[in-house]
Amino acid sequence: MTPVEPSSSPDAGAGAPMTALGLMSGTSMDGIDLAMIETDGERVLGRGPYDTVPYAAPFRARLAEAVRAGSAAPAELVAELDAAITDLHAAAVLRFLARWRVDPAAVRVVGFHGHTLYHAPERHRTRQLGDPGQLAARLGIDTVGDFRQADVAAGGQGAPLAPLYHAALARELDRPMAVLNLGGVANVTWIGRGDPEDDGALVAFDTGPANVLIDELVARRTGRAYDENGALAASGRADAAALAALLDHPYFAAPPPKSLDRYAFSADPVAGLGDADAAATLVAFTAATVARARDLLPAAPDRWLVTGGGRLNRTLMGALRAALGVPVEPVEAIGWEGDALEAQAFAFLAVRALLDRPLTLPGTTGAPRPLTGGSIHRAGVPAP
Fold first, then answer.
1. Distance, first Cα to last Cα, the chain
2. How far apart are CA 379 and CA 139, in angstroms?
3. pTM, two decimal places
4. Cβ distance 161 to 152 under 8 Å?
5. What is the rounded CA–CA span in Å between residue 346 and residue 319?
């Protein structure tokens, strides 16, 4: 197969299409997502192969240890993980390119998110593990990293970062609509009828926990990594008192833009419940927080497209349909690849960074103005 199969034609006068490879290590700590696209930085001209490389359990445990400590993580552990994340991403990319018979010279840029150690925009601080300069040197491909730093330094939330990619994919869809990402934390992209870069046509923010509390509960109580198909939650009943306690948090009423750290919420209110009822209550919690987020949007979406691992949880998807009262579908319903979407987004943003185009907007992160960002590391420049 060709590395990237065209899905549309570029606009007349658009910039030269580039093949880009995006890399994402998400809050679930499952592994590294890789995805290729072709884009001119405005339109998505083709979507190519994608893959996920799982982390080994011992490494995932070390990573979780550091993320739990956040900014207090020991310097030695952070240095160890910076090097390991870089090494693992380099190996994953080289295997990916070999598998799909892609000449590295055909890839214009790599978008390297790294793995978030902590995210504290209220303190103008965010830290992602991994060294984009070293990665560029190892791969021989220009690499963009540090996607969140410029936005956070300017007073933005630094998250979510995928909205402009969502809007590029959704150019031909009816609007208003929403893209809901159910990762460890949930975030929504609301896409209105105007130009996405116009003020008010694109709104995004974190809605609350998605899978993180459910996954941690299931792992702690059953030893399984997650609640497959939502089977455990489906066998229980949500506890009204525990749900009310979970929802009793000022974050949900705060206006956007806003963003969350992985450990911003606790599952303590369900500690006294049985396994099934606890899981059911956490599912109800996620659905209720998305419904509250809908009430903060400029207009109610006519349709919700869901990406992230939570789209595979049938019980959660059913709870969302009941809470939102409009079509709620996995992104595969319209031909998008839910397992690739975040990695594709960082490929898209890397091209925009090369073109000095905005990565974030006032409506997506609270940035004071449309901001470009990312640190660009040239393949021919030795990493320090």
1. 37
2. 8
3. 0.92
4. no
5. 30
